[in-house]
């Protein structure tokens, strides 16, 4: 198991797996539905071809891939370093009859050689989880950017949804090798009279 392996996530997916087996429910959707809708709308607005290769980094229960497949995308891959997450997403994929979704147990910080040539990479919360790692978070963030450069084609799109990082911080993290195309609107929340952003969603293009 990899050094940044987070056992609490694994436990969460195991619980979700049991729940799914009990009641056939896809469990909690991380970040809520609106972030998936936001991603799919952007791809549609950009007229991204439906056969573009899409990688979901840290796919979790795979629900985003299911939604992409329902929207007509045909070349979908999901990776997660938690085998329980991949098991769960396989069960959900089977239940939905989505055979064109590929799922693999992969550590994105040490990706296998065949993980390359993607036109679109999507991250909802995985970069957050990696950057919260108490052991060498900064080194892991730099490794994440290196991995992203190796799996995403030049001029490919990277869509990131984050709860921890501001737009400025993300621009700083992904400044090398990527340029920002746009910031996607996200729900605002009010905190002590100041308007804050609970979620940041950005689209980068690889140079």
Per-chain topology:
Layout: H1 7-23, H2 32-45, E1 54-57, H3 63-70, E2 76-80, H4 83-96, E3 101-105, E4 118-124, H5 126-131, H6 137-151, E5 152-162, H7 167-173, E6 178-184, E7 188-191, E8 194-197, E9 200-206
Helix pairs in contact: 1-4
Summing up helix and strand content along with how strands pair, one would put the structural category as alpha/beta
CATH architecture descriptor name = 3-Layer(aba) Sandwich
Distance between the termini: 33 Å
Q: What is the strand content? A: 25-35%
Number of strands: 9
Please write the CATH class name.
Alpha Beta
**With helices defined by DSSP (H or I, 4 residues minimum), what is the helix count?**
7
Average pLDDT number: 86
CATH fold type: Rossmann fold
Taking all Cα atoms into account, the compactness measure Rg is 16 Å
Largest sheet: 7 strands, mixed
Description:
- Pfam families: Methyltransf_31.
- Keywords: Cytoplasm, Methyltransferase, Nucleus, S-adenosyl-L-methionine, Transferase.
- InterPro entries: Efm4/METTL10, Methyltranfer_dom, SAM-dependent_MTases_sf.
- This is EFMT2 methyltransferase.
- This protein has 207 residues and is α/β, with parallel strands linked by helices.
- The chain has one domain (8-206): Rossmann fold (3-Layer(aba) Sandwich), CATH 3.40.50.150.
- The chain has 7 helices and 9 strands, in the order ααβαβαββααβαββββ.
- It has helices spanning 7-23, 32-45, 63-70, 83-96, 126-131, 137-151, 167-173; strands spanning 54-57, 76-80, 101-105, 118-124, 152-162, 178-184, 188-191, 194-197, 200-206.
- The strands form 2 sheets. It has a 7-stranded mixed β-sheet with strand order 3-2-1-4-5-9-6, with helices on both faces. It has a two-stranded antiparallel ribbon with strand order 7-8.
- α1 (7-23) packs parallel to α4.
- It is globular, with a radius of gyration of 16 Å.
